[in-house]
Structures are given as C-alpha cells and as structure tokens.
Design a protein that fits this description.
disordered N terminus; Rossmann fold; N-utilizing Substance Protein B Homolog, Chain A; about 425 residues; Alpha-Beta Plaits; eight-stranded mixed beta sheet
C-alpha cells in the first residue's frame, strides 16, 4: 500500500533536500555532522527516510545508474537526486509516476532545470529494465551485498557461517527498542501500557521492549516524562554487564549521547562521572539526564588526558564505549559503509588502545573496566583486547555475566556490539 505525502510538492521538496545531503556524503561528509534536514517533522522524517534508503542501497543503485547513463559519469547533484528517487521507488510508499514527476520537478529546486529530460529518461529506463538490471548486477558483490568489497571480505573471513546474515542486517531498517526506566515502572507494566495504546511489543532483555513497528518518539507513551528511553537492546547490555552496586564510583569515559550513562543511574545509586570530548554532545547527555531526572557529573574532556579531569580517586567501574568504525550499526548510520576505508581500522585501533591505557590508571585495584564497541571487525575488538593484555600484567579478561557472548552480531532484534570485561589485580 502506498503512503503518499500530504501533497505532491512535498515529495519534490524532500527529494531535493535528500539529494543535497547525499551529495555531501558522496563528497566525504558525514550525516552525523549535519543539522536535521527539513522544516517540520513530516519533512524531516521523509528526507531522512530517503537519505538512509539511498545509502543502504547505494552499492546496487549507483551501479544501476552507471549502467543506464550514456553520459558516463553523472554530475554529483543529479547523481544524488537520482539515488534519492530510486530509494523512493524502492520504498513502495509512492506511485511510480509520482516519483518520476516529482524528481523532474526537484531539478528546478536544485537549480538544474536543464536536467529534467535526463532525470525523466533515467528513471523511466530504470522502471522498464528493473528485472534485467537486477540479473546483470547480481554477480558484482558490492551491488549484491550493498557494502564495499573490503568490508564484505572482512566480514566473510571473520564469520564464515554468518557473514551473509550480518551483511543483510546492515541493509535493513533498524528495530526500535525501548529501555524501561525501572525507577519509575516495571517492564511488565509498561508492556501492558504499550499494548493498551495499540503498540504491540515483546520483551527482549532485562529492561528492553522491542516494538513490532517503529513509531515517532513523541508517540511513545511516557517518553517525555522519563518512563522510557529509546535504546537498542544490544546497547542495553553494557550497563547490565558492569555488575553495578550502590555506592560505587563509576566512570563513563565516552558518554555521549548518554543512553548508557542514564541506564547506569537507573540500575544503581552510584557516583557517576560522564566524559565526552564534544561540548555539543555533552549538552545532549545533560538533556537526557534531565528528562529522566538523573544526576551525574558531566564534563567536556578527552578521556586520554587524565590530568585534565581526574582527581586521583580511583573508580570501581569504568565503561569505555570507545569510538569505532560503527560497522555493527551500519543500518542506523548507512553513510559509514561508504565513508570508511579499510585503512581506517589501524588508526581506530590505535585510538582505542590509547583509551584503554589511559583509563587503566584510573581503575581501582579489584575494579572492572568494560570495553565496548559497536563494531563487528576483529581489529577493533579481540585484537585490541589481546594486545592490551599482552602488555599489562595487572589485567585479566573476565567472564561476562550469564555466559553472554563477547561479539553480538546484528539481527532483527538488536545491533552489533562487542563487549570485554577487564579486571584489575588487587
């Protein structure tokens, strides 16, 4: 069933805005650096849907455009517009003739009125030759799996029995999971509330409820009042694996946007310090805590520069949710698939190792540090931990509670994460 926008002009405007975002990504820019596109909630949602859809399908759709264009290289603005239009066609939300018509109209909004005939011809050729194109493009692995070749090879080598499922998960719409604030209600009571409000969900973790169908966050019952937060079920494992207890001194070293910070405070009455290097992201941490009526010391700081923020008092628990490739959450950040390079992993691993070495100084004897990435690449996960253990005699790798696996691969219930507990000798 098609779900059209309020009027046709909305789609032309959304296609134009989406194409501008896509053009910036194709030139090396990150979606994370952009302000929210669009002027209102409906337009923002439509633009984001088109941008993410285009980037999830980029490997195939860009190859299709190259096959259809007699011009050879398509200029960036039109290439981005066509990618957005193909995402609209593939979404099934709009009639095909509407997408073609509105993409042509979007040319004027992009100051490309002379390209209307070209855009019309390409989209109509795509519709005529869709099946034939699919058969032609399938043998190419980037087109088939919608990931860069180097990424495909690393996943295949690391997970020979699951690599296709991992790649397929990276091309899907992410699930929407809620974390119930146990200081306010119980998962059982909140689940009943969701069902009563016509939002079916299922329990997938200690405090996690997975919605059968994503909804705008403003529609989530009790969200503004702090009853729940939106947080992936995999991400919720972090606070649970820390084995928190009241009175502990806890550090969240790379805290933004604050989901894990808040979860820690929902689970135990601890003395929490939250750090992030970005002042804007620290503001988001404070806003999240304020909504939930939770308190922590939030500081703008580089966690590796301990002299700038540490008072010398050791922490019993440290969460190191380190910067990484984001390969385990590619469906939420589909631009990373095409912005990352294989060579980036070496630099990321060096940064992750530096964070571990710095934070180890601040960990109390007998304390535990939880190392977390949202990556599926071994170079950022076991390899970093193994290298650290080889050179730090006071560290040993602990057992995750309840026999939980260190590597969580993305599936229809959660994103991909890696967890490792490091224990410091007394």
């Amino acid at each position: 069933m098609n779900v059209p926008l309020r009027r046709n002009a909305d789609l032309a405007e959304s296609l134009a805005r989406a194409s501008r975002s896509l053009a910036r990504v194709l030139q090396g820019g990150s979606l994370a650096d952009e302000r929210e596109p669009g002027r209102d909630a409906a337009t923002r949602a439509a633009v984001l849907d088109l941008v993410h859809g285009a980037l999830r399908r980029f490997g195939r759709d860009d190859a299709a455009l190259r096959a259809l264009s007699a011009r050879g290289q398509i200029e960036p603005a039109l290439r981005a517009l066509l990618l957005a239009a193909l995402a609209a066609l593939e979404s099934g939300r709009y009639a095909e003739y509407t997408v073609v018509d509105q993409a042509v109209r979007a040319c004027a909004r992009l100051h490309k009125p002379g390209a209307q005939g070209f855009v019309n011809a390409i989209l109509r050729a795509f519709l005529r030759n869709r099946v034939r194109l699919a058969a032609r493009l399938d043998p190419d692995k980037e087109s088939r799996f919608q990931h860069p070749a180097w990424w495909i090879e690393r996943v295949r080598n690391a997970y020979p029995d699951a690599w296709e499922r991992v790649l397929a998960a990276g091309n899907t719409h992410p699930p929407m999971c809620l974390r119930v604030n146990r200081r306010r209600t119980t998962p059982e009571d909140y689940l009943a509330r969701l069902i009563s409000d016509g939002m079916p969900a299922r329990r997938v973790g200690v405090s996690a409820l997975l919605l059968h169908k994503p909804v705008p966050v403003e529609r989530v019952p009790g969200f503004l009042q702090g009853d729940v937060s939106v947080q992936d079920a995999g991400a919720q494992r972090a606070a649970e694996l820390l084995e928190l207890a009241d009175g502990q001194r806890v550090l969240d070293a790379c805290a933004a946007p604050g989901g894990k910070t808040a979860h820690i405070l929902e689970l135990a009455d601890v003395e929490l310090t939250a750090l992030d290097i970005d002042p804007v992201r620290c503001r988001r941490v404070r806003q999240n805590l304020a909504r939930l009526e939770l308190r922590a010391e939030v500081r703008v700081a580089d966690c590796t520069r301990t002299g700038d923020w540490w008072d010398g008092r050791a922490f019993e628990r440290i969460l190191a949710d380190v910067p990484c490739s984001a390969s385990g959450i590619a469906r939420r950040r589909p631009d990373v698939k095409w912005l990352r390079r294989a060579s980036d992993l070496t630099g990321l691993a060096a940064q992750q190792s530096a964070i571990l070495r710095a934070l180890w100084q601040a960990l109390a004897a007998g304390g535990k540090l939880l190392y977390v990435t949202c990556s599926v690449f071994r170079e950022e996960n076991d390899a970093v931990i193994d290298a650290f253990l080889a050179c730090e005699p006071t560290a040993k790798r602990g057992v995750l509670t309840e026999g939980a696996p260190a590597q969580l691969l993305p599936d229809d219930g959660h994103d991909g994460f890696f967890f490792a507990i490091l224990e410091k000798a007394c």
